[in-house]
Amino acid sequence: MAADVTAKNLPLAKAINESLRRALEEDPKVLIMGEDVGKLGGVFRVTDGLQKDFGEDRVIDTPLAESGIVGTAIGLALRGYRPVVEIQFDGFVFPAYDQIVTQLAKMHARSLGKVKLPVVVRIPYGGGIGAVEHHSESPESLFAHVSGLKVVSPSNASDAYWMMQQAIQSDDPVIYFEPKRRYWDKGEVSAEAIPGPLHKARVVREGTDLTLAAYGPMVKLCQEVADAAAEEGRSLEVLDLRSISPLDFDTVQASVEKTRRLVVVHEAPVFFGSGAEIAARITERCFYHLEAPVLRVGGYHAPYPPARLEEEYLPGLDRVLDAVDRALAY
């Protein structure tokens, strides 16, 4: 097979930038909106250079008003546009929460399917960068609980590129969580080879003894855990869930039926987190296959701590390996 001449080795943030650039080039109805997304190029430079190349009417610097940003995007979507809005940091999304859950998520059902709202809400999320308060939240389960919203999170540059393409092309609103601690992780990105459906989980490492399931920033950690476990003769399978709502339970089930054990890892608090739904559903589906209870590793049910303590709050190698040991001890 001929080499893919379009493949590039890109940081995850640059992969999103290139995906947004392609969408702007291919569809004049695509707009980008947010605080400092234009002249500054975003605080993480994800939108760098786009306003310069596409103009202020396509890449729009907005006031500091998240509710107004999403509300305006809803109006634009009703007029046939495909807005991509940036919430500058995860903890800033809550002023827009009302617009997202009572308008954006409900309009399709309220109109009996006549109205579509192709809006993408980009949210850099998670910790690991030493940020101040309100800059390291993981609110994905809040949005996954709301019917009418699709919720996804890439873990690598290739998925970041293609999942953004697929999100923009979706006629349903998509909450696109970007793992900010992985913005600078590089990976090969092909502009031709679509990696798969938007809501399909992927086995990123084959194993036989236990399944680790994660998404976004924790996938890389789970691969490191699998490496460490392999040194002790343990074979761990790693799943990248990719989509949180809808969630590909079939792929998780197939893996657990093989390994008979499951540990779910995410940065968000374990209490009422997405791991709880996965644990409940897999217990129902795989009751006679499981040889241990489904275990969860995540943040604590407490406000996100100051930066000097975040490594104690976030799941790390030792905490995940401890859960692996407990599951294998049954």
Automatic annotation (TrEMBL):
Keywords: Oxidoreductase, Thiamine pyrophosphate. The keyword Cell wall biogenesis/degradation does not apply. One of its GO terms (molecular function) is magnesium ion binding. Its cofactor is thiamine diphosphate. It comes from the Bacteria. It holds the Pfam family Transketolase_C. Residues 10-185 form the Transketolase-like pyrimidine-binding domain. InterPro entries: THDP-binding, Transketo_C/PFOR_II, Transketolase-like_Pyr-bd, Transketolase_C. PANTHER family: PYRUVATE DEHYDROGENASE E1 COMPONENT BETA SUBUNIT, PYRUVATE DEHYDROGENASE E1 COMPONENT SUBUNIT BETA. This is 2-oxoisovalerate dehydrogenase. It comes from Streptomyces longwoodensis.
